[in-house]
Amino acid sequence: MSAPGGGRVDPDVRSRGHWSGRLGFVLAASGSAIGLGNIWKFPYMTGENGGSAFVLVYLACIAVVGLPVMMAEILLGRRAQRNPARAMATLAHEARASKHWRLVGIAGIVAGAIILSYYSVVAGWMLDYLVRASTGSFGNIGAQDATRAFDGLLADGLRLSLWHTLFMLMTMVVVARGVHRGLEAANRALMPALVAILVLLLGYGVVEGDMARAVSFMFDADFSKLTPGVILAAMGQAFFTLSIGMGAMMAYGSYLRRDVSIAQTACYVAAADTAFAILAGLAVFAIVFGHGMASAAGPGLVMHTLPIAFGNMPGGTVIGFLFFVLIVFAAWTSAISIAEPGVSWCAEQTRLTRAQASVVIGGIIWLVGIAVALSFNAWKDFRLFGLGLFDAFDYLASNVMLPLGGLMIVAFAGWVLSSAHAREELRCGDRLFALWRSTVRYVSPVVIVLIFLSLTGVMST
Ligand code: PHE
User: Fold this and answer.
1) Of the candidates 235, 255, 247, the residue with the CA atom closest to the CA atom of residue 409
2) Cα-to-chain-centroid distance, residue 98
3) Which end of the chain has less neighbouring CB within 10 Å, N or C?
4) Percentage of the chain with pLDDT > 70?
């Protein structure tokens, strides 16, 4: 079990916490992957981008880019046993490459801060709706009132800020407790509950909703709606939903013991995440179509439409409450992983303890999040790249920073890291290894670059 850098194990590597085993890692990595991206973002992106065309490109991106990037990212983290910035520097040193590879880790930490700042605000919406659902305030609500309720929430900067503050506190408390007592314990408790609630909702969708229409909306191939913008959005969604391109999986991989096969576990995680997105999408659209609602409602889709469904169905108070508990749990286990690269970096590179690092990093992200919360109301007129702060952050992170980060990660894993080291970490058969290696060397980078280029082509015409 030699450590990179010539068999010398430095003390902070030896004292790192680790997942208790493969299951602990699979739960934590799935907890990271499954989140608002699956339950809130995937349905509205599908609705906005024309349904099946988006879904099919998204699935293709998961297979040819997402999964190989995920394997690469976890393997870099595990090999280095360090936070993402240090991991890249250490592995580059080991391979006698430029120390500037460190910047990939740093850029990931910045991307994480951007993502968590708005992710936490959206999770705050869900907390607000969780309380509303549990008090039965959606009873018999109509379309107009549901829209008004959400607009009212967005207009209330203080309310948004308070929920965001609560969610950041929930997140940072877990992160501060560390890998074992915090991250793994939270995921072990929350992930099974998540699956149970999803199954319940799906059952409701089948019995009461329009599942047939949901299936055809999501899967009947209709490529007439395919544009470079839709393709980029699908790729961005693949990165976002798998938690790749910013170091979250690298950080989680760094707590993985050496005897676990990365190829196999990454497949489990990607499969769980994809299944969850598809099933959540089907449940949401079955309810949406079953109640004659619009599928292209944008980020407000879940917020506008589901209260109507919950307000009008038998047992809706309980189902509605469970649904928002589901989203909050899912968001929580993801938010923890978004903060992890920054916190582990801060704790390992400075004299701060993990708890202090959580306060510092959490504090910065919280502050940026307040700006996001206010961008819906008091600071509405502020524009970044012609978009509101919320949309600009989401676009920048999902469609630019994560794919670029992923590109650098596959480039490193395919061209800088030695083949022997990669094989040692992945632990899979020869054929699969050869397939992975050629995919990260040629296919994934080419696909990412082509998708970027197709978009610039459109913008310049
Ligand atoms: N994958 C998470 C989701 O789907 C979000 C996330 C993005 C988590 C980036 C970590 C890193 O909600």
Assistant:
1) 247
2) 29
3) C
4) 96
DSSP 100: G
Nearest CA to ligand 1 atom 4: 37
**Dist CA 195 CA 387 (whole Å):** 35
Nearest to 68 by CA among 239, 221, 198, 229: 239
Rounded Cα distance, 52 and 225, in Å: 9
Q: Which of 165, 126, 141, 136 is nearest to 300 (CA)?
A: 126
Closest CA relative to residue 301, chosen from 33, 34, 35, 41: 41
Residues with CB under 6 A from ligand 1: 32-33, 35-38, 115, 240-241, 243, 246, 248, 334, 337-338
| Dihedral sign (CA 250, 254, 255, 261) | positive
**For residue range 62-120, what is the model confidence (pLDDT) as tens digits?**
999 999 999 999 999 999 999 999 999 999 999 999 999 999 999 999 999 999 999 99
Residue 460: pLDDT over 60: no
| Bridge partners (DSSP) listed for residue 384 | 387
Nearest to 407 by CA among 445, 370, 434, 439: 445
- pTM of full prediction above 0.90: yes
Give pLDDT, residue 457: 64
Other CB atoms within 10 Å distance of the CB of residue 355: 15
Q: Which residue, by CA, sits nearest to atom 6 of ligand 1?
A: 243
Local confidence band at 183 (pLDDT 50, 70, 90 cut-offs): confident
The predicted-structure confidence for 240-278, as pLDDT tens digits, reads as follows 999 999 999 999 999 999 888 899 999 999 999 999 999
Alpha carbon distance 383, 142 (integer Å): 33
Task: Using most ligand atoms within 8 A of CB, pick from 171, 187, 243, 329 the residue to mutate for ligand 1.
Answer: 243
Residues 150, 127: Cα–Cα separation, whole Å = 13
Residue 335 corresponds to which amino acid? Answer: A
Contact indicator for 451, 403 with CB cutoff of 8 Å = yes
Helix intervals (H) in 81-227: 84-94, 102-134, 143-155, 157-178, 185-208, 211-219
What letter does residue 387 receive in the DSSP assignment? B
